[in-house]
Specification:
Number of strands: 15
Order of helices and strands: EHHHEHEHEEHEEEEEHHHEEEHHEHHEH
Oligomer: single chain
Radius of gyration: 21 Å
Strand content: 5-15%
Bound molecules: pyridoxal-5'-phosphate
Largest sheet: 7 strands, mixed
Number of helices: 14
Length: about 375
């Protein structure tokens, strides 16, 4: 029986990638904002409809670049219902994570709970468009404006999405996209920051190159976080096929919804009707009393059928040792409940309708 994992990376045809990288053997321009890096930046700005982008070696370092401008020791209001990267970027930049609960329908930060977490040390809000569900950006924007806080979105799951016809990259001050190989669009490893303030471009270029604005002096601390030409080339290939990739994902997501819509105790979060989705993930929640089995029992059944979903996102990042040892942890009961019951079913472009049928057949056995 074919093994099905939660995600499988998309790849262009071998010939397409070979053609894209072949001139590198003539130019020997392998990294340092080469022509492919520059071309990808331009095409991504067009695709995402944003004025500026800076590319990085991965999404995590992009997030650290964005956070590196905040005063050390200041507090960042964030969500614990996310991938390790979001919280670790905060901690690694010498900032204090303050965990806000999520709302139960779309699992994004509950904007109505933000204000009570604001102190005179708060410098920013870092919400996550989790699974591609877009945060309550209007309310978050209003609060941020009122309290003079920066809004940095972790948009790792929201590549190419729109809400109210606004591109997701134009929400907040800065948004981070991950181009990791498991994401909707990828450069093998890679990431980007998009922002409206064009003066940041130089700063990020220096940050990813040891803080060097020119070839001699380092004026501030930075790191090495450049995207190479080989990675940019993969991005150029993948971007040509992005629409098709998203539509294949959409077909699979619709098939799941059709199969699973009327199962007692199995909850599929609804779509937001003002959002154009990229169908990055397909999370479902189980209620044991009604469904008959809990999330972990479902996992072991699926595994018996060679199907390997993932507990995205369990545990909450606020439960990590690195957090518990260092910080006062806020209670987030809704996030905790959801993280105990959520399962992310396999979803990727090359997953077939037959695969989805096979996965759903196991879930329908109960
Ligand atoms: C993937 C991901 C990241 C980090 O991305 P990398 O490119 O793997 O460093 C950050 N936040 C979330 C929510 C992610 O899913």
């Amino acid at each position: 029986m074919k093994t099905i994992h939660v995600v499988q990376s998309s790849m262009p045809l071998r010939e397409e990638y070979m053609a894209e990288i072949s001139d590198i053997w003539d130019t020997r321009w392998l990294t340092h904002s080469g022509p492919k890096h520059e071309k990808l930046s331009k095409l991504l700005c067009e695709y995402l409809e944003v004025p500026h982008i800076s590319l990085f070696a991965n999404g995590h370092l992009a997030l650290e670049a964005a956070l590196s401008r905040l005063p050390v020791g200041s507090e960042v209001i964030t969500t614990p219902f996310t991938f390790a990267s979001t919280t670790q970027a905060i901690i690694h930049c010498g900032l204090v994570p303050v965990f806000c609960d999520i709302e139960p329908t779309y699992m994004t930060m509950d904007a109505s709970q933000i204000e009570e977490l604001i102190t005179d040390k708060t410098s920013a809000i870092l919400p996550v468009h989790v699974y591609g569900y877009i945060c309550n950006y209007k309310e978050i924007g209003r609060i941020a404006h009122l309290h003079k806080l920066m809004v940095i979105y972790d948009a790792a799951h929201a590549f190419g999405e729109y809400i109210d016809r606004v591109t997701v990259g134009n929400l907040g001050d800065i948004s981070m996209f991950s181009f990791h190989s498991t994401k909707v669009f990828h450069t093998v490893e890679g990431g980007g920051l998009v922002y409206a303030d064009g003066t940041l471009k130089k700063e990020y270029a220096a940050w990813r190159q040891f803080g060097m604005y020119d070839k001699e002096d380092a004026e501030q601390m930075g790191t090495n976080a450049k995207m190479t030409e080989m990675h940019a080339a993969m991005g150029l290939c993948n971007l040509r096929h992005i629409e098709e990739q998203i539509s294949l994902r959409c077909q699979n997501a619709m098939r799941y919804r059709e199969h699973l819509k009327d199962i007692s105790g199995l909850y599929i979060p609804p779509q937001q009707d003002n959002v154009e989705y990229n169908y990055a993930y397909f999370p479902v929640l189980f209620e044991k009393e009604k469904f008959g089995k809990d999330r972990d029992m479902v996992i072991s059944d699926l595994e018996k059928h060679n199907i390997f979903p993932r507990k995205y996102f369990y545990p909450l990042t606020s439960k990590f040792d690195i957090c518990k040892q260092k910080f006062k942890i806020q209670e987030t009961p809704i996030a905790e409940d959801i993280s105990n019951r959520v399962l992310t079913l396999p979803l990727y472009a090359d997953l077939t309708i037959e695969d989805v049928d096979r996965i759903c057949a196991v879930l329908k056995e109960y």
